[in-house]
């Protein structure tokens, strides 16, 4: 694949290195030539100075033959304009834009531009470390409506089947973390001591699910 990245900050340069290591070709755009210092000396991709929404600049980056476009500059407006140009002018289907304002992210998501709302994501990660108990989000879709959460299932669920937990709490288990590895369970998978249960749920359902699990624990105590 050929991927064009706009923004050679920490995220953009890291993506460029990872993608190149995976065998893809990369072109990276930044308005500041100094930004390319973040790229390792052996980076083989193209470095283009300019703006990602400038037609000549992204053509030079190979947008006409690109399989994907990523906008991760420091400006919301620049990211979304560049993403729209890549998709609407050059027909690149696989486009992602980083957006700092989660309210904007929701709007652009509805317009068909996949976004990563960094403020919301960062806040969720901090909250998970400050408040580890209960179902704190591991991932949240840009609209904030659906999330992946770690469920404090309680020791009383050890020995019970995943299907029983799902039925009791009316939720869906996405995967289990067991001994440091991820496991996609069947309904008859038995929860073991030390398992971390991850659920996928609507955000407005998390409180109810936690309450259902707590009620089960109280019933068995």
UniProtKB/TrEMBL annotation:
Residue span(s) of domain RCK N-terminal: 1-118
Coiled coil: none
Positions of the RCK C-terminal domain: 133-215
Keywords: Ion transport, NAD, Potassium, Potassium transport, Transport
Domain of life from the UniProt record: Bacteria
Pfam families referenced in this protein's UniProt entry, alphabetically: TrkA_C (PF02080), TrkA_N (PF02254)
PANTHER family, A to Z: POTASSIUM CHANNEL PROTEIN 2-RELATED-RELATED, TRK SYSTEM POTASSIUM UPTAKE PROTEIN TRKA
Protein name: Trk system potassium uptake protein TrkA
Species whose genome carries this gene: Actinomadura napierensis
């Amino acid at each position: 694949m050929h991927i064009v990245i706009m923004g050679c900050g920490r995220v953009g340069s890291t993506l460029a290195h990872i993608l190149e290591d995976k065998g893809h070709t990369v072109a990276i755009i930044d308005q500041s030539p100094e930004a390319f210092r973040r790229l390792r000396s052996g980076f083989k991709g193209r470095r283009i100075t300019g703006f990602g929404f400038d037609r000549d600049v992204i053509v030079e980056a190979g947008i006409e033959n690109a399989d994907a476009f990523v906008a991760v500059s420091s400006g919301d407006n620049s990211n979304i304009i560049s993403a729209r140009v890549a998709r609407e002018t050059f027909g690149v289907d696989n486009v992602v834009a980083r957006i700092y304002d989660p309210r904007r992210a929701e709007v652009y998501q509805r317009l068909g531009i996949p976004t990563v709302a960094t403020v919301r994501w960062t806040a969720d990660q901090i909250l998970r470390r400050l408040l580890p108990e209960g179902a704190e989000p591991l991932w949240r879709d840009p609209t904030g409506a659906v999330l992946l959460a770690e469920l404090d299932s309680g020791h009383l669920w050890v020995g019970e089947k995943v299907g029983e937990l799902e039925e009791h709490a009316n939720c869906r288990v996405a995967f289990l973390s067991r001994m440091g590895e991820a496991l996609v369970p069947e309904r008859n998978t038995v929860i073991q001591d030390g398992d971390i249960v991850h659920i996928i749920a609507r955000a407005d359902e998390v409180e109810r699910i936690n309450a259902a699990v707590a009620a089960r624990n109280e019933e068995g105590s």
